[in-house]
Amino acid sequence: MLLSRPTLWKRSTQLKFLRRFASQFRRAVQEAGLVTPDGTLGVAVTGTLDEHLFQMIAERLPEGTWEFVCHPGYNDAALQATRTRLKASRMRELQVLTSSAAKHILERQGIELISFHDLAVARQHMQP
After folding, report:
1. pLDDT (tens digit, 0 to 9) for every residue of the chain, 128 residues total?
2. Would you say residue 26 lies in a domain?
3. Which positions ≥6 away from 75 have C-beta within 8 Å?
4. Cβ neighbours of residue 11 under 8 Å, at least 6 residues apart?
């Protein structure tokens, strides 16, 4: 995967660095009484998401509750005025995520889309 998409090398290195702080982050979140998913997915493919990558991620999704990180949107005047490298990819991500193919991928994998509210309610029911 990384060999066929060189732009992912940089992101992969950044993620390795961030993983050093994962346990410290989880501890701080728990102490603050916040609710979070089990983890995040998609960060490594930021700006490169296409249907194939979406399917690969969905097929390898671990058990649990996960947040899919992406930046879908419209490439409008407001976006053009911002300083981000993620301009052209936003419309592509929006198209991938709202496609019938994405819906079928999620259905095939038995993946349920939920909100953070749903997550908080579910976690409350799990507490003793």
Report:
1. 544 555 655 666 666 767 787 788 888 888 998 888 988 888 778 888 999 999 999 999 999 999 999 989 888 888 888 888 878 888 999 999 999 999 999 999 999 999 999 999 988 887 66
2. no
3. 87, 88, 90, 91
4. 43, 44, 45, 46
- Structural domain tally of the chain? 1
Query: 27 lies in a domain?
Result: no
Domain that holds residue 60: 39-126
Helices then strands, counting H and E runs in the chain, come out as 7, 2
* Token pair belonging to 42: 């998609």
Q: Which residues of 65-101 are buried (b: 16+ CB within 10 A; e: fewer)?
A: ebebebbeeeeeeebeeeeeeeeebbebbbebeeeee
